[in-house]
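QUALITY CONTROL LOG
STEP: pairwise intake check
CHECKER ROLE: data steward
CRITERIA: each record must contain a sequence immediately followed by its structure tokens, with no blank fields

ENTRY 1 OF 2
RESULT FIELD BELOW
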Amino acid sequence: MENTINGIHHITAIAGDAKKNYDFYTRVLGLRMVKKTVNFDDPNTYHFYYGDKEGTPGTILTFFPWGSQIPAGRRGTRQVTEIGYSVPEGSLDFWLKRLDANHVTYNKVAEKFGEQYLTFLDPDGLKFELTVPKTVDNRTPFETSEVTAENATRGFHSITITSNTIEETAKILTDIFGYKLMEQHVNRFRFVTDAVENAAIVDLVEVPGERAGHVAGGSVHHVAFRVANDDILMEFRKKVVEAGHQITDKIDRNYFYSLYFREPGGVLFEIASDNPGFATDETVEELGTGLQLPPQYEPRRAQIESVLPKLV
């Protein structure tokens, strides 16, 4: 199996109210709740995973909903500032009407690098783009009664990282992760990996003098890049160390194995494996229907369930 970074694995962000987050992503955006578990470091907080039917890497958006009392974050440098989803050609009119009907803040359709996109904010102010890619995205969408296949998201299109200077971040992408600089427009630099067809784009936006963002409600905590298995994961650990960066040991996240390191631009990067996947403690049909706890918290299930917010 090739030793490659296969695009984006998942993106993790911080939210406020759990029910508001759940309602927005499952109903308005039409994503599937793939896994409902807890923050392994704070079991009184949910960890939600949204994605496609099977929880395919490249579609997974996760949240720690820390409650409505959490302060709002601030977009700036040293952050992932935009999350891009791929949507089908001809669907943007549907999304404009749907966002409008659900009182979502959005901007008019615009274009960059020859692709139309629609920007909107989630209930906590997290910034998204719905992008019609240049080439057809053939990933199978998850459908709901309100968001059917002709309009449904296909998974991630891209992420945008904002930095005071992009040089060192670009070296991580090109020298370690195998991305290539494909296009540039003013201060936006588009890096793409040819290891996969989708979820393959990282845009670096260089803004000298811009203040650093603040990670809190409505901001991205980290972005994870995908490898096929935990053997390849450890090969990338060696590459990161040889490049002079500090990185964690392998961590078992129950549904994937992870390494974490902070890239020189200030964004927390994760490298995550495809194995073992989300259908380890639930079947594909059952994904997201029950609260799944890691073994160390099962003895506390009753106490944990009593403090977690109700979603329905």
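ENTRY 2 OF 2
RESULT FIELD BELOW
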Amino acid sequence: MKTDLLFDFTVDKTAKTVNITREFDAELSLVWDAYTKPEILDQWWAPRPWTSKTKFMNFEVGGRRFYAMVSPEGQEHWSIQRYTSISPKTNFKMFNAFADKDENPELPGSDWDLNFSEYNGRTKVSITIYNESLERMEKMIEMGFKEGTAMNMKNLEELLASLSQRK
């Protein structure tokens, strides 16, 4: 396992943004699939021991993903992601908001801008998350967003290693 892969997480309270950069030792197309296909997303998009459960996902501009993070005790925390822009294998943008189990968003939410690039067999994912409110961003960080994101990225790194071996 590579140990020199970049992981950077910075918070800019003035701009109400979180910037995340992570490298993966995998081809861009595989990393893109991991972010855009529900059957792969559900294998890594939750900090363990939680799991991710996608109720539906329509990856197209205007489409949505409705999913829950599920605790080992069965507690569910729902979110809605609405895709606002897609440039295949280089970028997609989405609006993300917590929701109730009936798909009603709990606003405010955040705008995510995800960029993908590959160099020498490594894929870099750069994510900018703009929050509509500073209070929401601070609450997410207090709830462990940085630690949860680091765990998710580790999950993805392990999954990509496994998927790369199957090719």
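INTAKE CHECK: passed for both entries
DESCRIPTIVE NOTE, ENTRY 2: The mean pLDDT is 94.
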